[in-house]
User: Which sequence fits this backbone?
C-alpha cells in the first residue's frame, strides 16, 4: 500500500449462523457475553445485568489493557439491530461505532452483519487501532459468535 492510499473507514463482515435470531441477539445484547466473542481480543470483561434494551442505554466494559469504556447505544431494534459508540468514562464520544445487524432467514438460521465504522473518529491517538480493525477481525468475532450460538 502506498503512503497516500486511505484505509477504508467502514469495514464489515457477514455470515450465516445456524441459530434463531432471538438466541443470537441475546449473545450480542448482553455485554457480559462480549469478551467470549471478541475477535479483536480487546475486551477483558463486562458486568452481568447490563442487557441492552433501548437507544440511550450505556453499558460498561473493561479492556484487556485494564481501561474502562462506557458504550453508548445509538441504534436499537430488539432482535434485529444494535449499535454503540464507546468512550472513556465521562468523556465525549470520539466518533467510532460498532454495529450488529441480524436478518432472520428461518426459525434456526440468521444472517449477521458486523460493522466497525470509524469514519467520524477524530482522536488521532485512536487511529492506529482503528486501522488495525479489519474485516478479518470482524469475521473472527462472527465466527466466535456462531460457535456460541450453535452450541445448543
Assistant:
Amino acid at each position: 500500500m502506498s503512503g497516500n492510499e486511505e484505509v477504508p473507514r467502514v469495514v464489515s463482515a457477514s455470515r450465516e449462523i445456524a441459530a434463531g435470531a432471538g438466541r443470537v441477539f441475546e449473545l450480542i445484547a448482553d455485554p457480559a457475553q462480549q469478551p467470549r466473542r471478541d475477535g479483536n481480543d480487546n475486551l477483558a470483561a463486562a458486568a452481568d445485568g447490563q442487557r441492552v434494551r433501548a437507544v440511550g442505554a450505556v453499558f460498561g466494559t473493561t479492556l484487556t489493557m485494564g481501561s474502562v469504556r462506557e458504550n453508548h447505544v445509538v441504534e436499537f431494534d430488539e432482535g434485529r439491530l444494535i449499535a454503540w459508540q464507546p468512550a472513556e468514562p465521562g468523556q465525549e464520544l470520539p466518533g467510532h461505532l460498532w454495529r450488529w445487524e441480524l436478518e432472520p432467514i428461518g426459525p434456526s438460521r440468521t444472517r449477521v452483519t458486523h460493522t466497525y465504522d470509524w469514519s467520524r473518529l477524530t482522536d488521532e491517538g485512536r487511529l492506529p487501532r482503528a486501522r488495525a480493525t479489519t474485516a478479518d477481525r470482524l469475521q473472527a468475532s462472527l465466527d466466535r459468535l456462531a460457535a456460541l450460538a450453535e452450541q445448543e
